[in-house]
Fold:
Amino acid sequence: MPFLNSEDILAFVSGAVPGFKSTGAIKALSGGNLNYVWRVFGEGQSLIVKQAPPYIAKAPDIPLSSQRILIEAAALRLFDQHPLHGIISDDLRPPRLLYTDEKKHALILEDVGELESLDNHEVFGQSLGTNLGTFIGKLHRFTFQNEAIAEAIDNRQIQQSRLEVQYTQIRQLLNDFGISNWAELGDKAEKLGEKYLTKGKCLIMGDLWPRSILIGPKEDQARIIDWEFAHFGRPAQDVAHFLAHLWMLQHRAGSSDKKTADRQLQGTFVRGYLAALGPKKPLLFDEEEIKDAGIHFGAEILARTLGSFQSGYLYEGLRHDDSKIKEAVNVAARYIGAPMEGLTSFTNGGS
Structure:
């Protein structure tokens, strides 16, 4: 673990997928952070092999349960069943699961193609934000209080890791940065992480960030990948996670066009999401969820600016006294401190 060489990978695929004729070509993919991923080429098709080590692949010093890959497999299987089969379409869906090996902690997936992730895309189709919001809203709505799914997608280990690596770190990060109310904000974040250890309301994707969203082949279409953080949890974690990353994309945008596109995506996502909740909106995204969303929004920004996940992303290499870091940290602290005020504009469909 992981596969030691190309021969191991080819033997794995050949034994798992009947009729697959390999050309012998393999390409290691570098888009993700958590796992080892390869594209295996065959005659007329290619497949994706994904394997989870017992740590974060790009940060081996951070332990992470290999069971996450089995959670991803269980989540992807749900899209072949009622009611989740009805929310997928050619415009927006996850990749198809082809094979699972529980002992090797490895999956074989449909290859959706060499598509750009959302953070590398400059412009979007007018319907993309609505499509994304509708998909996530229906995911939450159609799995609301589904006990069978709650039992099948119990990802407490991942949430425990998030508590330790993200939420409990905030107190020290803010103290070191000189934020005066660091203790109060740290307590709020840690309590949220502890809440997220418990069974929630619905199935959440769990890691809805730009590199989990591949755009194309049309500008309104997307493929949502990397479901190993899926959990029967709280809708605020999905919504706030994505909104935090859209905020960071705007903050670090290299052009006014990119900033505008990300801002518009933010608004259409929220409106599509809330509309898709339908009559379950008061139950799924009530005042408590808005408050929790504000705290997670701030916590995610801190993880990407001061915390364990700065490397390889938008704020990589910036010193703590850089103006962009200071701006982001102050925004994060403000959202954690006054989460209801901060998220109200988003949940009202604003930007």
